[in-house]
Amino acid sequence: MSRQLTQRGEERKAQLVAYAIEAFARDGYHSTSVADIVDGVGVGKGVFYWYFSSKEELFVEILRTSQRDMRRRQQREIHGIEDPLERIDLGIRAAVHWLAENNDLRRLIEFARNEATFATAIQKGQKVLVEDARSHLEEALAQGRIPARDPEALALAMLAVANQLTHVYIAERGEDPDMVADLVADFCRGGLGLALDHS
To answer: 17 Cβ partners below 8 Å, 6+ apart?
Structure first.
């Protein structure tokens, strides 16, 4: 549902989204109702349905904007960097830090990966992130900087490693995000066939 919103309308919509993220992460998507969300914000259901046609549409928007925000974080970090391998390293680190800083959103993304209702939304966002990484990998391959391998498989593997290690080491164990970013980057460098550089 797309509407032209005033500044106040944008603020109200942002309140609904922020509360929904918190409620979905805390109580689970299925256990959180539209009534829970509007009660938490202190508005009526009519306000919710002015912005969203359903709880599902709201959740899809959360997924879409979350993945877009992570991508923007990566793009800011690699802006102006000519070396494709440095861009890959910085992009990995940006993703780990974004996941660490947005734990509720990370939990919702993990839930959505295993929920058929949201498979399409997750796949669309993942495809964009993979294509970004793939373009840097293809450039490094063309330059002979890494051994010849399938760039799409490498991109998918890097995304999976970042997600899994962030989940285990940050979400579950509370480890320092910088340490985890180093761990993920080192693992991915090894997967690309590069020597690890701790300078």
So the answer is: 58, 61, 62, 65
> How is domain 1-53 classified at the architecture level of CATH?
Orthogonal Bundle (1.10)
Which CATH code for domain 62-191? 1.10.357.10
Q: Which of 12, 19, 29 is nearest to 116 (CA)?
A: 29
Q: Which residues of the chain have pLDDT under 50?
A: 195-199
Given a contact cutoff of 8 angstroms between Cβ atoms, the answer to whether 30 and 56 are in contact is no
pLDDT in tens, 132-154: 999 999 999 999 999 999 999 99
Gap between the Cα atoms of 149 and 130, Å rounded: 15
Task: Name the residue ranges covered by the structural domains of the chain.
Answer: 1-53, 62-191
- How far CA 49 is from CA of 3, 8, 53, 56, 83, in Å, comes to 12, 16, 5, 12, 47
